[in-house]
Fold this protein.
Amino acid sequence: MTLKQEWLNTIEPDLKNVLRLFSLPDDFLSGCAWRLWEEEGAFFCRFEREGEAACLSAPVPAEGGDARTDELHGRRAARRLCRQTLYRLCRQVTGIHPPWGSLTGIRPTRLIYEQLEQGRTLEEAGAAVQAVFDVTAAKAELLCDLARVQMLLPPPGDEWMDIYIGIPFCPTRCAYCSFSSGEIGDGRLVEPYLDALRNELRAAAPLIAATGRRLRALYMGGGTPTSLSAEQLRRLLGEVMTLFPGAAEYTVEAGRPDSLTPEKLRAIRDAGVGRISINPQSMVDRTLQVIGRAHTAAQVEEAYPMARQVGFRHINMDVIAGLPGETLADFRQTMEAAKRLRPESLTVHTLAIKRSTRLHLENTPLPPAQTAAAMTEMGRETAKEMGLEPYYLYRQKYMAGNQENVGYALPGHACLYNVDIMEETTHILAFGAGGISKRIYPEEGRIGRAPNVSNIELYIARWKEMAERKEALFGGD
Ligand code: SF4
C-alpha cells in the first residue's frame, strides 16, 4: 500500500482535538513543522516545535481486502499515527497526562475488541491499549471490566435490528441540552406530531420482516416521552407494541420526574415496557435550578417509589458529573440518593458543553478538571458499592476533565440498546424528528445513515419522505 498525502486533507479537526486534551490553543498547530512519510513497510510521522520534537512509526497495514477496504485501513493507520505523534509532542511540552491518553474518539472499547480479534487475552488487550495510547491504568481497567460484561450479552449481528422512537418534547429546556427537542409549550404540535409518527411507524415497520431480520431492542427517547399525556402514551405504545412485538427489551425514557404521574407510568407498564429511566442529573436543588430542570430533588425521591408501586423492576438513573457550581460534596449528595433509591442501572455522565447549549453561550464557569475526575471516580465507587458493573462507555468532545460517560448495571440488567448504539454493531431503524437510522456494513468498516429532519414542523410535513429514506437505506436486501 502506498501512502497518500490526500488522506490528511481533512485531519486538522482531529489534530485540534488532540490539542484540546492539553488545553492548548488551535494556533499551537501553526507553530509546528510536521510531516508523514513511508519507509520500509512503515509509516513515520514527525512533529517539531521550538526545539521539541516527537517522531513515531507504525506498520503499514497488510493488504487483503478489496481496494476500498485496504485504502480505508491505510488511511486510518496514517491518521492515527499523526494524532499520536502530535499527542507525544504535546505531552512533552506540557507534562500533562490526560486520563484517556491520546484517544480522542468516542468509542474506546472498540480498541479492546481490535486487540481481542488479534488473538490477545482481555488482560493483554488492556495492557496494549494502555501502552499504545498512553491511557491510564484505571481507564484501561475500566475498559476491560466493561468488555467482560458486554461479552456475556446476546451477540449482535446482521440478523438483528433495533428501533428508536423519538418524542422531541420536554417540559422545559435544560441549559446543557444540545438535542433537537423543543419545549412542549401549549402542546399544539403534539397531536399532529403523533399522527405523523404513527404514519411513519406504519409505513416503515414492515422493513424488518422484509429484510429477513428480527427485532432486538426498542428504545423510546427524546426529549421526554412522558411529556405526553397518559392517554397519548397509551395510544402510542399500543400501536408500537402491535407493530414491533417480541423485542428482548423495551425502554421508555421517563426522564423528568416532574413529568410523571401514576397514570402515565401505568400506561407504559400496561403496554409491556420493562425498563424506564428516571433522571435526577443532580440531587442538589440549587444545581437543578441553574441547569433549568424545573424539578426538585424531592420530586425524584417521590418518583422512584411511585414507579416501583406501578410495578417497574428495572429503573435506570442518569446523573451528571461536573455540573456548574457543583463541589465534590454536592456530587456525594447525588450519589447518596442513588444508594437510597437503588436503581438497577446508573449512568454517570460527565458534562460536555456543546456550542449550541445555553451553558456555552452564557460562558458558565464549571468545576475544575480534577473535581470532574474525582466525581467520575466517586460514581464508579458508588456503582461498585451498589453491586453495579460497568457495561457501556462513550466519550464526547468538550467533556469536563476529559472524562467519559459510563453506564453501570446490576448483573443481567445491562441495556442492550445502549450497548448497540454505542458500539455501532446493530442496525437501527429510527423514527420521529431527529432520529438517525443506521445500517452497519461490518466487512467494510462503515455505516450507512438515513437521518430524519430534526425540526418538528418539517417532520410533520415530511414523514413520508423519512419512511422512504429508510427503505432506500435497507433496500436491496
Ligand atoms: S430532558 Fe433531555 S432532551 Fe429534554 S431538554 Fe433536558 S437534556 Fe434536552
